[in-house]
């Protein structure tokens, strides 16, 4: 079978660091088109990757009949418009998280997908890290007994990256829609994947940017139908030393018979089980499912994007359901929006 023809819509940071390299390296795909409204950036990448098909308008790309699938790497507010047009043109979609800005936009995507047969997947790449996969398997197998608590914390630069000019902080923050949209959606994805359907959300947010309601620190308490309690805490902070934030990028799962600490960026997890012989001898055991180089902190993260994109391509080639369904992505969005609603009204929000 010929490689799938791929287009990238939006050539910002996530496209540059994750999507473009992963498609180029994958034998199932051939990057043939890029789209961005920044002509200087568009021309730069066209030269760098020898791409002849360049577009400043995503509709022109989708109507050009030059691609089989696209990655939507635009700001969140554009996701629904691009996804709907892609579906109408019969183009498969990998959409960066989250699904959309609000439920109305998400509804348009749902309707478009119901009327057009394409593969659609939202890019929750952390789902593909082997340590998180192992953590879920341990939970499902009862290795820590009945789950009681799941807690996740992520500290990351967000719009405070060193390469973003101070004058552009607020613009970049608005594109990301806040730290809970940006970082919290990843944790919510993992929590729902591991613990099932949430029933209630209570959240509180803060911002150090004056005169804005965009959160750059947030915490949310999530009760699941299984009665597990979850806590999501995120913050946009640029700590230049990677190791200084290593303890602030962790998912902790506590059960009646043990505990798991899974590194958010990978590659390892720490396991203790009251019925585990290894735990009785050694205490908490460190497990690295795949032998990534610990001296290269983002090696596992880069691998997760490659695996995500390979699974998306595989769903097209084999005509099977993508591993991250539309229904799941919609539920994650509902939880994220419930957190914002809770923070605004200072009260718990029931999930319906």
Structure overview:
This protein has 352 residues and is α/β, with parallel strands linked by helices. It folds into two domains: 4-118, Rossmann fold, CATH 3.40.50.720; 127-304 and 333-350, 2-Layer Sandwich (Dihydrodipicolinate Reductase, domain 2), CATH 3.30.360. Helices cover 38% and strands 25% of the residues. The protein has eleven helices and 15 strands. The strands form two sheets. It has a nine-stranded mixed sheet with strand order 14-13-12-11-7-10-9-8-15. It has a six-stranded parallel sheet with strand order 3-2-1-4-5-6, sandwiched between helices. Strand 1, helix 1 (13-25) and strand 2 (29-35) form a beta-alpha-beta unit. Helix 1 (13-25) packs across helix 10 (299-317) and helix 8 packs across helix 11 (326-345). The longest helix is centred in the last third of the chain and has 20 residues, at 326-345. The mean pLDDT is 93.
The CATH superfamily name of the largest domain is Dihydrodipicolinate Reductase, domain 2
User: What's the total helix number?
Assistant: 11
**Largest beta sheet: strand ordering:** 14-13-12-11-7-10-9-8-15
Under the CATH scheme, the architecture of the largest domain is: 2-Layer Sandwich
The CATH class assignment of the largest domain is: Alpha Beta
Strands, total number: 15
For the record, give the distance between the C-alpha atoms at the N and C termini, rounded to a whole number: 44 Å
Structural class of the helix and strand makeup?
alpha/beta
Overall helicity: 25-40%
Question: What is the H-and-E element order?
Answer: EHEHEHEHEHEHEHHEEEEEEHEHHE
Count of all domains: 2
Parts with pLDDT < 50 across at least 5 consecutive residues: none
- Average pLDDT rating: 93
Task: Indicate the proportion of strand residues.
Answer: 15-25%
Tertiary shape = globular
